[in-house]
Design a protein that fits this description.
By secondary structure, the chain is of the alpha/beta class. About 45% of the residues lie in helices and about 15% in strands.
């Protein structure tokens, strides 16, 4: 049986890295896209190759740039015969707290390109091959309550792009259902950088096993892996929060 191949954007670190590790454990071959983290990407590929005996590659490219999207997919297809799973993990984010009028035109355009247009471009390039094999899985990443298009103070560009992406994800799910392709969005909660590459066990230990533990990259990776499963075809067009029940935006607005 042919091994399936997954392309993960921004897969060299954080939640992308944990997702790569989780899918590799499940036998996937991986295309690890990265923008600047070359050493991390190559180290991860080496680790996956040695640990799981699978073929994995790293491909540089900024998903906010259309030409890079074309090159990422072209390099992936030059190494693998198919891209069965497409995980849109990469997404530019500006940590500085700014009101809409304080964003430059360049910042606005870059955030929309990296978080929304990139998904259009990569999906457009990959979906035709998924249609031919009558099977595919597409997973995007959003934020808490994105499907209700909530306002997010100081995050206007990022929030607008992800709200548009929620609609795009559901549209892809409808349009591609006849070809056996599913599309879903996973919305991580407030997972801080040090916990994005951590395991659930470490979170339990840090919280003495009590409810209300810190969310981890593994929590998100497990949901993504579930959505890519053969038997998860009935779940499509869904927007799934992985927040630990926390009102993330409410928490942010009070800080």
């Amino acid at each position: 049986m042919k091994k399936k191949t997954a392309l993960i954007t921004g897969g060299a670190s954080g939640i992308g890295k944990k997702t790569a590790e989780h899918l590799a454990e499940n036998g996937y071959q991986l295309v690890i896209n990265y923008r600047n983290s070359e050493s991390e990407a190559l180290s991860l590929v080496k680790h996956l190759n040695e640990s799981y005996g699978t073929k994995n590659i790293a491909v540089q490219g900024d998903v906010a740039i259309e030409e890079d999207c074309h090159r990422i997919v072209s390099e992936a297809f030059s190494f693998f015969t198919s891209i069965d799973v497409l995980i849109h993990n990469a997404g530019p984010y500006i940590h500085e707290r700014k009101k809409l009028t304080e964003y430059s035109f360049e910042e606005w355009n870059y955030l929309l390109s990296g978080n929304l247009t990139s998904v259009f471009c990569l999906s457009k390039l990959v979906i035709p091959s998924m249609r031919k094999q009558k099977w595919g899985r597409i997973v995007t990443l959003g934020y808490d309550r994105v499907e209700t298009t909530p306002g997010w103070i100081y995050r206007s560009a990022f929030a607008a792009a992800k709200a548009g992406l929620a609609s795009l994800t559901r549209t892809i799910a409808i349009e591609e259902a006849e070809f056996g392709i599913t599309a879903n969005m996973v919305c991580p909660g407030d997972i801080t950088n040090e916990w994005k590459v951590s395991n659930i066990k470490e979170s339990y230990e840090a919280n003495n096993g009590l409810i209300g533990r810190q969310g981890t990259g593994e929590d998100v990776a497990r949901v993504i892996a579930f959505l890519t499963d053969e038997k998860s075809d009935f779940i499509t067009g869904s927007i799934i929060p992985v927040t630990g029940g926390v009102d993330v935006l409410g928490k942010v607005s009070k800080s």
